[in-house]
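Could you show me just one protein sequence together with its fold in token form as a worked example?
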Amino acid sequence: MVMSRLRTGLTLPELMIVIVLIGALLALAMPKLGKVDAQASTLSAAQTIAAQLATARAAAIATGYPSRVTVSGNTVTIATSDSLGTFTPMGKSVSLADYGVTVTASPASNVEFDPRGFASGIATMQRFIVDADTYGVPRDTVCVARIGLVMPNGCSL
């Protein structure tokens, strides 16, 4: 009588080969995952700036007094005016440092909205360029038109 032995599970060499193959695949995927993370951070920072601009515009319309958004370094601050024209900060400043991006404002670093919601003090368009600190990741741009329109995905009307 011949006894057969049933084999269950994997041998150690088979398991080692599977682990090495998984490691090789992860090593190939890591640069792509880093770029995806930087793109998501750039988009999130641009959306944060757009939200702050929209909040300031809404505050100007709601209160009937001007409001201002200031970008200083990687900090975005909203300030509202009172009947005397004195600007006071509205809420907390938002820090963009956690996103790992650099923000450049052109032509100025602040946008002021009048009580009608129009952006005053700019010729035609105010741009906020959000640039990731990672090579190969595209920039994102948030624009404000003179009529108060906030465009989070570029500057085309």
